[in-house]
Every structure is written in structure tokens, then in C-alpha cells.
Amino acid sequence: DDETPTIAVHPTRKVSQINPNIYAGFTEHMGRCIYGGIYDPGNPLSDENGFRKDVVDALKELNIPTVRYPGGNFCATYHWLDGVGPKDQRPSRPELAWLGTETNQFGTDEFMKWCETVGTEPYLCFNFGTGTLDEALAWVEYCNGTGNTYYANMRRKNGREEPYKVKYWALGNEVWGPWQVEQMTKEAYAHKALQWAKALKLLDPSLVLILCGQDGTASWDYYTLKQCLVPAHSALSTSAVPLIDMHSIHMYTSSNEHLPNATAPLAAERAIEITSALIDLARVENKVPPSQPRPTICFDEWNVWDPIRAEGSLGAEESYTLSDALAVAIWLNVFIRKSRDVGMACIAQTVNVISPLMTTKEGIIKQTTWWPLYLFSRFMRGWTVSAHVSCGVYEGETAPGWLRSAMDTPWLDVSASIGEDGFVSLVVVNIHEKRGFETKMEGVRGSVDVYTVTGEGVQSNNMKGQEEVSIRESKWDGGDHYEFPKHSMTLMRWKAE
Ligand code: AHR
Predict the structure, then answer these.
(1) Residue 87 per-residue DSSP state
(2) For atom 8 of ligand 1, which residue has the closest CA?
(3) Is domain 19-381 classified as CATH 3.20.20.80?
(4) How far is the CA of 253 from the centre of ligand 1 (A)?
(5) How far apart are CA 368 and CA 370, in angstroms?
(6) Could you tell me if the ipTM is greater than 0.95?
(7) Where along the chain do the CATH 2.60.40.1180 domains lie?
(8) Given 177, 462, 477, 496, which residue has the most CB atoms within 10 angstroms?
(9) Check: CATH 3.40.630.30 for 387-495?
(10) Pocket residues for ligand 1 (CB within 6 Å)?
């Protein structure tokens, strides 16, 4: 533990391209995410569409490429037709995921308009509970149809001539969960997912279809991949069109103690490795030709979340600490290190519900976890490059432990990238509560911009009326040693030679 740590960055060793979609978001009809979050008609802070302008502006700063919608668990009883057409004719319905009433005042066209306002792409999730394949096909036709057909014309009648060109579609959400309205066995799900995928790809081969996985390590994941990663359907125009394009996995981490809390996201790294191996295995076993693109992982729900400690309705209004911000920084380090395998990652969620961004009637609050997300999205783009850390390890409890057995947990968690502009960015998360680490730096050159996220203590929190955690900017001359302060995230940025 007393040895001087070393961090070595190799900007010329590109590991893989970073998909911008790892900075995707998620908005569900849950709690105050849609109603009172992104949509708040009548509030002076909202525009003529009822969209909160302060929320839109904040999300523009985050530069979110894609947003998942309308759930989550909400999807399992959602009928999209309820949410289109004249607002005064839309039905209110009992909502069975969160046991409220869905007024349907915000639906497909509102979401599409909101995405255009924010400058992001939509990702929609089909109803695999009470929904039918006909309904799913109709939704795709409504969004993407260009011909003189019934649902494409319905969209035109509702005021939108051009197709929305929605690319990303999920084949259900957490359908394995006992909390779902219609929980399914893996056998029943795989059968239905394959059937739907064939029909959907016949309607529109350009769709990116996302299979519903569990945490990537379950027998559900292996079985559904084995059944669904099959050679392309013969009726499809080209054998390069796979039925399934991505496999979705979900994980939430948390602990009441700082170190298990901050290190828990490392379990996701192991889950990504296992999922990736299962994808390869299924393809080999099914003799999928190598010319058929290999599915990537869609980590479409991730975050720090403990529904017990969270306040507000549904245990969803998390109040985040500095410890949580460091956990989010490690989550994002994981996605950078695993950029080869992760095609999309959606923080769950984008506003008010388990979110870095909160609204009140009077404005917004950026939680502690906003700042790592902001720095990553701004700078960690382009390619992952090789970075090595050698330092002491934390040997205590982690959560969830079952995926951690084979891995070290260094005090300094590291990832690095190089952008199109030739700038290298290095993120170092020091999880230690009491110790800064004077670190030998290799491969860092010239004049370095430094962004540090930290606060007084690991319990610092921005929800108590003050911004206790934010970014401090400084310069460093790129010498041999740098001290990473206790409980902090540091992003360094310099021009490659
Ligand atoms: O993000 C909150 C909920 O968590 C989602 O609706 C569900 O998919 C998950 O269990």
C-alpha cells in the first residue's frame, strides 16, 4: 500500500472506438420524470409545447445522443395509440407498473418533438406484457412509414408529414421480473422475441432490435442469446441483416457504506465480459456467419439506486452524495474500458427519477452525480486508449460481491481516451476517504487542463440547498508526479504529441 502508485497512459495504443451512445438517457412514465420533469405545461419555465426549457438547456449541455422511452416497467401495459391524436380525446387509464393514472397527455409525438428540441435520438421500447405484435408493427409504421398506409397517414393527420426514422427498438423490458404485469419464462420470451423480430425486420430492415436480457450473467441471458442469435432470416433482403442487433442488460448498484458503494460498479465490468462471451458462444454454436454483424451490449439501465433510501414517490427520488458521484465515475470508467462491447448505455433515469438532474417548480438542481456524467460526455469521446494503473488495492467488502471474486479493486480507478481533435483525456477516481495519492505519471505531456470533482466528505450532497460537490478547474505542467486528492474524480486533458 505504501508504494508510490504509477499511472501510464499510451495515447497511440487505441483499444477501440467509443460509441457516443454510452452517454444515452432514459425517460419513463414514472414518478416525476415525464409529468413535472420534462413536461410541465403552464409553468412559466416551459415553452409553448409544455417542455421545461431549463431541463432542455441542461440536457443540451450533457449532449445526450439517444434517449430511451416510455419505460421501463411502464411499457408492459402501455398502448401507444392512447397517446396520439387530439389531447382532449386521449383516454386516462389505470397504470399498473407504478399504480397511478396515465393521462396520455404526453405520448409518441410529444416525445419525438422533445427529442428534436433537445437534439437527441429516440429509442422506443415495445409492450411485451399486454401488447400485441400487430400493435408493435403499427407503432413502427406510425413512426417510420413513408408510404400511403394507414398508420403513416395517421401520423400525417396528427401533424407530422416526415417520418421520425426511429432506429432503436427494444423487444420488451425486464420481462423476466416477477414485478412485471406479464412475467415470462425464458422459453416463452425467446420464442416471442424471435417471432416479433422476424416480422419487424420484414417491415423495416433498418431497425436496430434490442433483446431483453437480465444482468448479462443469468441463464436467461445465455438461453435467449442462444435462441435468438441465429443466421439472418432467409426472407430478408441481405444476409448481413441480423434479427437481433443488441442485447440489453440492467444493473443498479449501491451500499450504505462508502467503499462498497463506490466500488460496486466494477461488477458491471465483469457482467460485460460475461455477456460478451455469451454472445460469442451463441454465435459459434449457431454457426452464425462472421459477415453478420456481432451484437453489442445495450446497458440500457444503469445507475446508483437504493429504492429504500430514496425519498419521494416510488423510492425513486435519490438524493446523491459524493460517494455516489465517485461510483458514477467508476461506472463510466467501466464503459470506457469496455467500449469494444458496449454499444449503448442509458443512465436510469434522466430527470427526477433516480437522476442527476432534479426539478422543482422554480428551477433545476444538478446533483453530485451530474458532474462526472458531464465531464465524461464532454471529453471522453473518440477511442479508448491503453492506460495502466499500479497501486494498492482496497480489500474490503464490495457490492454486489458475486461478480467481484476474480478482480482487484485499486484505490485509483482509471480510464483514458483520445478524441478526433488529438486531445488525450485521463480519468482517475481516488476512492480513498482519507488519503490523497502522490502518483508517478507516465505518458502525460505538456500543459494539462485539470478538472476535479470533489467535496468536503463522501456524504457531501447538493440537495440540501447548496452545491457541495461541483467541478474545480486548474492547470498542471505535466511533470512526473501528481497528487490525486482523497475522495475525488480527476479528469486531465492534454494534446497528444
Ligand atoms: O428505472 C426504474 C425501473 O427499474 C424500470 O422501470 C425498470 O425497468 C427497472 O426495474
Answers:
(1) G
(2) 72
(3) yes
(4) 13
(5) 5
(6) yes
(7) 387-495
(8) 462
(9) no
(10) 28, 30, 71-73, 173-174, 301, 348-349, 354
For the question of residue 317 being annotated catalytic, the response is no
438 part of the active site: no
CB 29 within 8 A of CB 102: yes
Contact 476, 446 (CB under 8 A): no
Per the structure block, which three cell numbers stand in for 129?
Answer: 406484457
Residues, the chain, total? 497
User: Kind of pairing, strands 488-495 and 448-454?
Assistant: antiparallel
Query: Separation of 316 CA from ligand 1 center, angstroms?
Result: 10
Predicted confidence (pLDDT) per residue in 241-262, tens digit: 789 999 999 999 999 999 999 9
Q: Which amino acid is at 285?
A: E
Q: How far is the CA of 277 from the centre of ligand 1 (A)?
A: 25
pLDDT in tens, 16-61: 999 999 999 999 999 999 999 999 999 999 999 999 999 999 999 9
Give helix then strand counts, H and E, for the chain: 10, 21
Instruction: Report residue 342 CA to chain centroid gap.
Output: 10
Ligand 1 atom 7: the closest Cα is on which residue?
72
Among protein residues, the one with the nearest Cα to ligand 1's atom 3 is 72
Q: Which of 269, 301, 318, 468 is catalytic?
A: 301
| Cβ proximity of 156 and 149 under 8 Å | no
